[in-house]
């Protein structure tokens, strides 16, 4: 996983030895901001709606059917949970949480603090995902801070799509394209399905975990940034490998990945409730 950070100046894991981050990067390393693509028809992606966690990045997201009075949801990675990395097969649902998130405006300045009421959903099985329900509604956030939630795309993304990874933790963006999709992405004990592979320009670092991956053309969230192969090892902690339908393994050193989010939209019901039994919801169940 893109290593979660503990504090602004430490590159410590949420768990102790044996936890499995990937794309390890010390905070002293500097990421290079990549300029938005020069298509005048495309509006530049900003930080509006992104959040900074204590150790990761995230964003305020909504489904197309979310109501203004629904509690706002914050999207990040399963490996960014304050309780530590969920084990293979572990799914967390409706667990109380008082975690806070710094809400950013378009320029990356913090404009307010959001507070979680619970971890609505979290797992590292098949995907690397966490959704927090907050104590604020979408309308309250917009009224107080002028910030609208980012909308989740409902369709599978396509290769060649121009994307921006917007890190609220670092207040940096990374621009590249979707290079393709991975049947299975294996890292240590975890396996993720149908992962997004970036083109090499997106050199994400520790602290970018949980960043929204935004379609430059639509402004919608198509994935959540989570991992990359750090040193060319095969299927180890910090070094995910690609496994195709025939079991063939490919290692791509220096390439980074994300987990798609369209598949979680059917799981979001009225009032931002996560209902794993809703029609079309295919997220892993406890």
From TrEMBL:
Gene Ontology biological-process annotations: proteolysis
Domain of life: Bacteria
Pfam family, one: Trypsin_2
Species this chain originates from: Streptomyces filamentosus
Protein name: Serine protease
Position of the signal peptide: 1-24
UniProt cross-references to Gene3D superfamilies, sorted A to Z: Trypsin-like serine proteases
Assigned keywords, A-Z: Hydrolase, Protease, Signal
Molecular functions per Gene Ontology: peptidase activity
């Amino acid at each position: 996983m893109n290593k979660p950070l503990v504090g602004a100046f430490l590159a410590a894991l949420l768990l102790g030895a044996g936890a499995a981050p990937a794309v390890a990067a010390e905070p002293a390393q500097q990421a290079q901001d990549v300029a938005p693509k020069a298509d005048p028809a495309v509006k530049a992606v900003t930080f509006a709606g992104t959040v900074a966690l204590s150790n990761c990045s995230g964003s305020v997201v909504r489904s197309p059917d979310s109501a203004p009075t629904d509690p706002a949801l914050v999207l990040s990675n399963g490996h960014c949970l304050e309780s530590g990395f969920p084990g293979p097969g572990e799914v967390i649902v409706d667990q109380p949480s008082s975690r806070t998130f710094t809400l950013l405006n378009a320029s990356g300045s913090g404009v307010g603090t959001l507070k979680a009421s619970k971890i609505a959903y979290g797992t590292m099985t098949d995907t690397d995902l966490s959704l927090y329900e907050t104590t604020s509604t979408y309308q309250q956030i917009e009224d107080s801070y002028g910030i609208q939630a980012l909308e989740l795309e409902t369709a599978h993304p396509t290769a060649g799509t121009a994307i921006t990874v917007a890190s609220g933790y670092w207040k940096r963006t990374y621009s590249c394209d979707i290079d393709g999709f991975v049947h299975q992405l294996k890292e240590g004990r975890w396996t993720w399905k149908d992962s997004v592979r970036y083109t090499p320009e997106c050199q994400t670092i520790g602290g970018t975990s949980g960043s929204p991956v935004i379609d430059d053309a639509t402004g919608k969230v198509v994935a959540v940034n989570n991992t990359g192969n750090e040193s060319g090892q095969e299927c180890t902690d910090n070094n995910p490998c690609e496994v195709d339908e025939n079991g063939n393994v490919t290692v791509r050193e220096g390439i980074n990945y994300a987990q798609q989010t369209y598949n979680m939209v059917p799981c979001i019901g009225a009032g931002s409730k996560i209902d794993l039994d809703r029609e079309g919801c295919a997220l892993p169940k406890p």
